[in-house]
Design goal:
heterodimer, A: alpha/beta, D-Maltodextrin-Binding Protein, domain 2, 2 domains, five-stranded mixed β-sheet, 10 strands, elongated, B: globular
Chain lengths: 258, 222
């Protein structure tokens, strides 16, 4: 009885020790806004080919990630979907500097196949549908934690649809979750990131129209190196401002500064 | 299929058992054989994690051990890493969340041992330790096994606490259940489907094992 139980004990401790042992040689972890899911994955792949080093990507709502960084999450770099969250982190002394704007996001209205919603730049189709009371659910990201949610709120307010739609809104925890709701037929449509609509397998799920930039405050997306950043993270930070990364960002529906 | 996430999940399950089982045996037996003032309150407290939303536990752990709290700072200074967003932090959260799954079955197991058996053993001159090791523990064994299996299965399924306290760090706190969520967010339904099926199979297998074991090694009553 005593020998097998010792073996078990050792086996369990080996299992427990394993993740920590892996932690020692892990590539830097980069926190990134959910709307970068496809663009940044592609950039990271190219970075790996060009530089021979890897970065680990974790995606989430910018607000959630900011909160996690404040609570001590071991990220080395943060690509936000706005400028406010990085500013908050740099005010708290958690970043190296104020960072740079790496992309400007755009918003689209999306309607899945079979939805009664017709999409257009000025949201006339949505207004029509609201009037006839046919909107059951309309998806946006949560304005409290997701910059794209704030942009969506601004657009809906500008078009005078916010109050009428309010009770029908489904709030995604991040812009990707909102996109899930908007593209899978669980809602008549939604206001989501252009970058997600352009990603593989989404565009053919329905129709979309790009919202004019003037209808919402610009979605300038800022990135910052965090205090624990090492050499590889700094390399990736520089790489993101280079031509090949910018081309990928453009391809994925972002406007690129400069 | 995210093998790293599976390994984190299995390590979390095994680690939770390793931490909780000794405590559960001690505490479950205490609740079974002792009468004391405030026992009802203690039993209620033990059950609380069962009905508490995981987000409540996550909130308190983050507030208590986050980098901005004094306790969090102290822990960071001593251990060199923070508790939130690390595997150790997950282990702590998981141990707390699983207390009822360990204590309750074990308590029932010890309660099922008739008082006569204990008295007889004492009359035979066995010391309390001998009574515990040679009479009570073998009789309560099926309940202890059930507790371990339930804890393991429940840990694999834990989601809310893991996401809140652990974040989503690959190789460290991204468990299989969080990986499913992560893949869903990336519109990668195929991987999510494979991992969901894996968890389903593990859940069915563990519960089948519990049922089979409790039949085969059911408590022998005198």
């Amino acid at each position: 009885m005593s020998k097998p139980s010792l073996d078990w004990f050792l086996a369990i401790w080996m299992l427990i020790g394993m993740p920590s042992a892996l932690a020692a040689q892990r590539p830097p972890t980069i926190a990134a806004a959910a709307n970068l899911n496809f663009a940044l994955t592609e950039i990271a792949k190219q970075f790996e080919q060009a530089q021979g080093t890897r970065v680990e990507l974790v995606f989430g709502a910018s607000g959630t990630l900011t909160r996690q960084i404040q609570d001590g999450a071991p990220f080395e770099m943060f690509l936000a979907a706005d400028e406010e969250f990085p500013a908050r982190l740099s005010a708290a002394g958690l970043t190296r500097d104020a960072g740079v704007v790496y992309a400007v996001g755009r918003l689209v209205i999306f309607a899945p196949k079979g939805s009664p919603l017709t999409v257009d730049q000025r949201l006339d189709g949505l207004a029509q549908l609201v009037k006839t009371g046919k909107v059951n659910r309309f998806a946006i990201a949560n304005p409290e934690v997701a910059p794209y949610g704030r942009a969506a709120e601004a657009v809906l307010r500008k078009r005078g649809l916010w109050d009428a739609l309010r009770s029908n809104l489904v709030l995604g925890d991040s812009i990707t979750q909102a996109a899930q709701f908007a593209t899978t037929g669980n809602a008549v449509g939604g206001l989501i990131a252009y970058s997600l609509v352009l990603s593989p397998g989404i565009a053919e799920r329905g129709s979309y129209a790009v919202i004019p930039d003037a209808d919402y405050p610009p979605l300038r997306q800022r990135m910052v190196l965090l205090k624990p950043a090492g050499a590889v993270a700094a390399q990736f930070y520089a790489y993101l401002q280079g031509d090949s990364a910018r081309a990928i960002l453009r391809k994925h529906g972002f406007a690129v500064p400069g | 299929m995210d093998w790293t996430a599976l390994r984190v999940s299995l390590a979390l399950g095994a680690g939770t058992i390793a931490i909780l089982l000794p405590f559960g045996i001690w505490f479950g037996r205490l609740l079974a054989v002792r009468q004391f003032r405030g026992k009802l309150l203690v039993e209620a407290l033990v059950t609380v994690p069962l009905v508490l939303p995981p987000t409540v536990l996550g909130f308190y752990l983050l507030v208590t051990f986050g980098a901005r709290s004094p306790l969090g700072e102290a822990f960071q200074a001593i251990a060199g890493r923070s508790l939130p967003f690390t595997f150790e932090g997950l282990l702590l959260a998981s141990a707390i969340a699983n207390i009822p799954f360990v204590v309750q079955p074990i308590q029932r197991g010890f309660e099922a041992i008739p008082a006569d058996v204990r008295d007889a053993a004492a009359c035979c001159g066995l010391t309390p330790w001998q009574r515990f090791l040679r009479i009570e523990l073998p009789l309560a064994w099926p309940s202890i096994l059930t507790a371990a299996i339930l804890t393991f299965a429940h840990t694999l399924g834990e989601f809310g606490v893991v996401l809140m306290v652990g974040g989503n760090l690959p190789g460290e706190t991204r468990t299989l259940s969080v990986a499913i969520y992560d893949r869903m967010q990336a519109f990668d339904d195929r991987s999510a489907g494979v991992m969901a099926a894996t968890l389903l199979v593990i859940a069915v297998a563990t519960l089948t094992a519990t049922t089979a074991l409790s039949r085969r090694v059911g408590p022998r009553r005198g």
